[in-house]
Fold:
Amino acid sequence: MIRLQQVHRIFEVGDQKVHALNDVSLDIKCSEYIAMMGPSGSGKSTLLNILGLLDQPTSGEYILDGQDVTALSDQAQAEMRRDKIGFVFQFFHLVPRLSATENIALPMVLAGVPVAERKVRVSRILDAVGLTDRAHHRPDQLSGGQRQRVAIARATVMEPAVILADEPTGNLDSASGKDVLDILERLNDNDITLIVVTHNLDIAKRARRRLHMVDGRIDSDTTTGKRT
Amino acid sequence: MMAADILGFALKSLRGYSLRTGLMLLAMAIGVAAVVVLTSLGEGARRFVVAEFASLGTHLLIVLPGRSETTGGPPLLLGETPRDLTIDDAMALNRSRAVRRVAPIVVGSAAVSYRRRDRESIIVGSTREFLDVRHLTMAQGRFLPKIDPRRASPVCVLGAKIRQELFGADKALGEWVRLGDRRFRVIGVLASEGRTIGIDVEEIVVVPVASALSLFDTASLFRILVEARTREAIPLAQKDIIDIVRSRHDGEDDITVITQDALLSTFDNVLHALTLTVAGIAAISLAVAGILIMNVMLVAVSQRTAEIGLLKALGASGRCILILFVTEAGALSLIGAVLGLVIGRMGGWIIGRFYPALPIGTPWWAIVGALAVALGTGLLFSMLPARRAARLDPAQALSRR
Structure:
């Protein structure tokens, strides 16, 4: 489903070139559960950004769902992100002036989904993440765990094929962190591909496949039989 | 994205930053209100002048001594000083069939005194015809008697304000007042009429034309007011006046005849141009408001970097972000403009209360123009910030925290 071939990403910082990704090739099949690990600056965020079409590889090929996406226009890439990819961020990135419901509906607003259908989908998804009673609260009225659940609801409302989570529990206490992971893993059980970037070994151990990155390369790629 | 959603999103983010939005609305509103108020004043002045001229009667011709030409050229060696325009010249104009009334006019200023009170006043020397030509009415007594204009007579008619200042509550009719070094008997008082062009009739003293000539020791009239029989007779009257005076002045064209219509359209044009100029100056404040919008939108873009990155991650294209920001600026300028329109109209109304004589009215082109310029500058100046937002790199925008 996802195929990266000899992907390089070079940043120019001042007159220095930083090789953030160095010849990365990667195959990810449908409904995989992958944890990406590695020290800061190892290129895991860059890889995630490229997988999420937020960044372009300097060279190499990225094929998503059988389509070479590096050649697509800005508009087509935006539609890809909207329809196929869900993002979950460490700092939630909720729009502060919008209520939980409105935040969740945002991707559907961008996609032009009719209002009636939006309501149905939002209420179904609020129920799934257990936030029905918080529907009209603004982010500043929600706890960290609740905010991340809103963010996950937003990431899944368009029923994407992949969820990219960048340190989804990094800003949460362990109890709400566990809730959030449970929700993400439940989505994975429903055949959504889940890619989680984390520093936390305990979290990484829950994934069936673990990528370890060092200096812009994939250092190790191990697959265990099933989730523990 | 659906249009209603775009608008809703823009309005919500405007509400989200209420202080910023409020200040921008204020700037836009002030700009539009300035345009509306200033053009209303200009338009009011124009209507005022037009109405004043109309009240003088549209069949009016004004005869001035001296030839005024718009073409340049060296001054003539002979006949440089125009011949005096005399009472006899004025009387001779009655020969034309196109002329109904003729009122010779001498204007000067002199001290008017009654007992121990005195003041400086404008003295108008004329004939009985003056009353009808200028459409004046009497408050008390009679106007100047119907006598031979060449004869002086020691009688005068006071303007309402002069009467009030000299006599207060006392009876004025029949009393003797001193004009300069002569004495005149008051035979009438003019009704207060408000202003008419040039002279405030409340502050004049009218005396027979021959008396005024001798009072100011001159033989030349200031001008002659001529009323044509009908509107259609004006060109004929003009031609007759020129012919009659030329024959009396040894074949020289040394007078100028202005028709009311020509004067009216000149004033109309001048004041219209003035209104446009004032509107243009006010429009500068709109441009300033536009630049302010750009400034604030730029700040908004850097403030909302993370949000823009998020929108991109959720599937907004660069074009979509552009539309969102431009819509925001457009909504801002439109709301500000409408607000300014309301404030401007209110301002006009308040000015109208204080100066009821001024027929305040906002011309439609000023309203349309102000709205268009407001919206135009808002959209134009938001393009730069909106494009900056559209081009934002989402990965970097999201990583900034």
